[in-house]
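Please decode residue identities from the backbone states below.
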């Protein structure tokens, strides 16, 4: 598969959703977790969604339990938590794997077509470097997803514009989304 629009993903209800349904939209694809230090990013993701949905932004939320088992529970439980605690209104899909042999094809494609951008040199980034290094000594040199809340910004044409690591400031995420969503 050579285009993001060639993929289908599983909705929370188990039905298949074709990413071709999102042609012409700016996408922010995020692997999330409900019990992570980055979980409060849901607030800012919802703010970004509220601001730019009218400009054609869709945030696609994929819960993932691969990092510290921080997304326990079933799809309904996760969705209840996210809507109740953070009021999210963007699409949330069925829980997935983003790395390894059980990674969904979409994430295999995202990983194969992006590079690890590095963690910011802020306290969260320095901490994440230490945590991830324990799991993968060569983490800087491979494209695997490193942790929850890694984001992929996709253009209206289906191209990866940016891979945004979880330690990058949400202000920078906002600015990158704004640039993509408001470009003519």
């Amino acid at each position: 598969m050579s285009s993001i629009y060639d993929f289908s993903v599983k909705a929370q209800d188990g039905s298949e959703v074709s990413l071709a349904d999102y042609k012409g939209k700016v996408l922010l694809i995020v692997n999330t977790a409900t019990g992570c230090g980055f979980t409060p990013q849901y607030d800012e993701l919802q703010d970004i969604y509220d601001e730019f949905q009218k400009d054609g932004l869709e945030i696609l939320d994929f819960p993932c339990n691969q990092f510290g088992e921080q997304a326990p529970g079933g799809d309904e439980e996760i969705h209840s938590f996210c809507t109740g605690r953070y009021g999210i209104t963007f699409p949330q899909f069925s829980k997935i794997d983003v790395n390894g042999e059980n990674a969904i094809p979409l994430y295999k494609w995202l990983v194969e077509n992006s590079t690890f951008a590095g963690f910011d040199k802020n306290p969260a980034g320095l901490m994440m470097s230490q945590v991830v290094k324990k799991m993968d000594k060569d983490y800087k040199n491979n494209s695997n997803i490193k942790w929850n809340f890694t984001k992929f910004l996709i253009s209206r044409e289906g191209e990866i514009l940016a891979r945004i690591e979880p330690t990058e400031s949400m202000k920078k995420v906002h600015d990158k989304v704004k640039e993509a969503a408001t470009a003519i």
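Observation: DSSP finds five helices and six strands in the chain.
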